[in-house]
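Chapter review: from sequence to fold.
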Amino acid sequence: MTLPVQKPIRNYDVEELRRLDLAHHLPAQSDYKLQRELGGSRMITRAEGCTITDAEGKSLLDGMAGLWCVNVGYGRDELARVAYEQMLELPYYNTFFKTATPPPVRLAAKIAEKMQASNPALTHVFFNSSGSEANDTIFRLVRHYWALKGEPKRKIFISRKNAYHGSTVAGASLGGMTFMHEQGDLPIPGVEHVLQPYHFGEGFGEDPDAFATRVADSIEERILSVGPENVAAFIGEPVQGAGGVIIPPDSYWPKVEAICRKYGILLICDEVICGFGRLGHWFGHEHWGVKPDLIAMAKGLSSGYLPISAVGVSQEIVDTLVEKGGDFVHGYTYSGHPTCAAVALANIEILENESLIERTRDVTGPYLAKALKRLENHPLVGQARSLGLIGAVEIVSEPGTNKRFTGAEGTAGPIVRDLCIKNGLMVRGIRDSLVMCPPLIITEAEIDRIVDIMVQSLNEAEPVLRAL
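The token string follows.
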């Protein structure tokens, strides 16, 4: 009989941790002035299932699955065991020097199986450590591909305003967030940004299909303005996550794919958030039936247990690489890390064995959509939307409109988020919305609790927002 893993319980010195945090630690994506004013970061020390616990013993329902990633939930003994066993056998070796190790080879085959179930053209996988690295890989691979094809002028990537494709120089450039571009003199040359399919914010009251056509047409207009012969690819997230859970109208993605095929440019789907069950499919693009040439994946690939990402690549691109020969001089020390790959493979097996993708599609996704709808009766809510297990709540000053609180425009989401955290729920505030992305193991009762805490927090926020 296999004994359960002994999970340590440590008594941390919280004040000492916060002192060290301020003295030596620079957290990611942080305002360091604010970090100092707050006296250091909240220290998360334990987690189980869908619940995280901080060093002071406060538990929160994790409505964000870590950072859009802990799909199978926390505390999985089987993933810890796989990592332990792989570390004993072979903790690390690289994929340089014409070498490979068993775990990434097996994982590549498993990912290819999942990709090919809906798109037989996607046959190969290149491994990295993060979603940002995956998109950097795509950036270089696409330009290299077109050069090998004898079309070196095809360098331009078309992306969308408010998109997020990572924090590296190439990733932040591909993304369309202006506040990121303001740091580091971005975007780099060769990236164009067009309209995002944000119906509530930018097409309120417009027929959804007409809006989808108008937004998709902006891609074609940009292709024509820069010259189709200069365009390499279009990149987009099936659902824009960090942009505010922007769920496009149903006709948008098929229109985008048709435009890419019309002009012979590559279609890239950034599946870093949407992949591995988030939308009720193995990959988010399957929801709309489109067939990309490349996909970026990370986060749910290992449920965040170890850092790993991947790029799915079409056979046509691989055939070009093979036919022309020569090194693709790109890759990382940890590309195909055997321990990370072993854990990712075990994570996929959990998703399969527990039917978590099907459960998201058929049970919990529809339940979340129904539960969120009751928020639309709240005087601060303009829309509550979701797809699978990712959702957003738009905060407005007048019901039935998309009008914001002028005294708190762009900050209403963080204001309500802080109240949600106080009340026991970890969610994210993005401008004037709350977004959520719970683990795929979440129960209906826990979904109800998410909504109940949101209602409580919105009630507490209303007098604050109206007073600003």
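Two observations follow directly from the output. The chain has a mean pLDDT of 96. The chain has 16 helices and 15 strands.
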